[in-house]
Amino acid sequence: MVDPTETVVSADPAVIAGLDHWRTLPIKQQPSWPDPAAVASASAELASMPPLVFAGEVDQLRERLARAARGDAFLLQGGDCAETFAGATADQIRNRVKTILQMAVVLTYGASMPVIKMGRMAGQFAKPRSSDTETRGEVTLPAYRGDIVNGYDFTPQSREADPARLVKGYHTSASTLNLIRAFTQGGFADLRMVHSWNKGFAENPANQRYEGLAKEIDRAIKFMEAAGADFDELKRVEFYSSHEGLLMDYERPMTRIDSRTGLPYTTSAHFLWIGERTRDLDGAHVDFFRRIRNPIGIKLGPSTTPETMERLIDVLDPDREPGRITFITRMGAGRIRDALPPLLEAIQRFDATPLWVSDPMHGNGLTTPTGYKTRRFDDVVDEVKGFFEAHRDAGTHPGGIHVELTGDDVTECLGGSEMIDEQTLATRYESLCDPRLNHMQSLELSFLVAEELSRAQRA
Ligand code: PEP
Ligand code: MN
């Protein structure tokens, strides 16, 4: 990230050496590449590519997240469980951005606060798996680890880890981000237009329950117009990219020294999170991500103890920097009300203000008798409600939601106003990994969360 107009600060050699310390530590969830020389050459190619995001944007996001951690903003993070190369089409990207923008308008009204918009997009290609292999009938092959590693087709050739996919992952992220930047800067994000799409949702008889809130938003927009609000200012929105920081042969070469500060930034996305399976305190991922400047998310499952949480803060945020860490809790609807309160109580004895975000997806998986991985919309909603309740009781700020969603009309999660049932799942189940909320379910969730937020505001 060298810009000749800026002072070039070179990094401390110890900082650069530290970026490879993870190589000496236990590491989980990495592919076994058959050809190490090909990985080295793909890594070298990635290291020579331009950054996908810029240090200044990353710093700006950290400030935005600090606001959310203080209770003055709300984070909406959403997108596919696993993006695919084939799915990086203009239509699918547009529909996802559109859905996130629509949700954000509803949430902004409910929260009376700025909503930080962030996609699980433009790089969410690597997946942790519960098993290294997959068996179908008599055949056992390596598990699918995401398009940046291997193919989904169940053949030995497709399932072999292919380092050429690292480079393709970069290019697909670049074209996705390019389109996102165009959509969010070029007039598509105009508040009045996004609002008109939402009217369509509320006018659908299935969504009558939300008519009241939709009318309130409509009046608010009319009021703004009448009062002479500068709608030109409302044509552009900030939109940040994020993905799980999992695949080290991708994230390490995408990490660069910022010429203004001499500090390392991972330029594959603005925000990276460490998954529930790879957040070991002594493991490679925590060591690597503690050394970079990007804001970092950490998934916390229901077995997280206050001690683990405190140690994660000490390691990843020793300076207690506002906006630095986000805890993304994914406890399950049945566990959230027991598992979250002890953490919220402990945090008040600890001198840290992380941002708290609810992932109401990953603790609520189930498999139907017909073999579909799914989630019940009601469980998703119940976990979010439990998240808000726990924060209300503790006096902490419920600062955001992290959702697996798509802008398309898929049938992957059960329920919602369209009442998708087990029979319907088969009609349009497209996810290669976890089930996503479809367009309608996503909007419905945003209305329900907006109700929670306005209740929290009034309390
Ligand atoms: C995910 O976000 O897709 C994921 C694998 O989550 P977790 O680490 O919480 O299981
Ligand atoms: Mn997932």
How do the strands and helices of this protein lay out in sequence?
Blueprint: H1 13-18, H2 36-47, H3 55-70, E1 74-79, H4 90-111, E2 115-119, E3 133-136, E4 139-142, H5 156-159, H6 164-185, H7 191-203, H8 211-226, E5 239-244, H9 248-251, E6 255-257, E7 264-266, E8 271-274, H10 284-289, E9 296-300, H11 306-316, E10 325-329, H12 336-349, E11 355-358, E12 365-367, E13 373-375, H13 377-394, E14 398-404, H14 439-458
Parallel strand pairs: 1-2, 1-14, 2-5, 5-8, 8-9, 9-10, 10-11, 11-14
Antiparallel strand pairs: 3-4, 6-7, 12-13
Bound molecules: phosphoenolpyruvate (PEP) and manganese (II) ion.
Low-confidence stretches: none
Instruction: Provide the CATH architecture.
Output: Alpha-Beta Barrel
The unique ligands bound to this protein are: phosphoenolpyruvate, manganese (II) ion
Envelope shape: globular
Alpha-beta content class: alpha/beta
Number of strands: 14
Helical run tally: 14
Assign the CATH superfamily.
Aldolase class I
- Bin the strand percentage: 5-15%
Mean pLDDT: 96
Helix content: 40-55%
SSE series: HHHEHEEEHHHHEHEEEHEHEHEEEHEH
> What's the Cα radius of gyration?
21 Å
CATH topology: TIM Barrel
Order of strands, widest sheet: 1-2-5-8-9-10-11-14
